[in-house]
Amino acid sequence: xxxxxxxxxxxxxxxxxxxxxxxxxxxxxxxxxxxxxxxxxxxxxxxxxxxxxxxxxxxxxxxxxxxxxxxxxxxxxxxxxxxxxxxxxxxxxxxxxxx
Length: 99
Fold this sequence. Notes:
By secondary structure, the chain is α+β, with helices and mostly antiparallel strands. The chain contains three helices and four strands; from the N terminus they run H-E-E-H-E-E-H. Strands 1-2-4-3 form a four-stranded antiparallel beta sheet. It has one domain (about 20-99): 2-Layer Sandwich (Gyrase A, domain 2), CATH 3.30.1360. About 40% of the residues lie in helices and about 20% in strands. A hairpin with a 2-residue loop joins strand 1 (about 25) and strand 2. This is Putative pterin-4-alpha-carbinolamine dehydratase.
């Protein structure tokens, strides 16, 4: 039996909550960020650190890496929207970025 999906946030709830995050925006239904690093190795190292946290939370980002840039989109596919899982991962990513 499949678990019930999490409650999805309304656009107003998302805007209210995202205002507390430094690196994130809400665009086209996703929490998004784009991060630039000194070089590819630094970007890839950050992806690795984020990957361990995503695995721990069992919530995996949609992301891409081009040279020194890491672009991340968060969305809970099972719930067809933004949920606590997205905000929890975004908050953890911010902690990782801020070191």
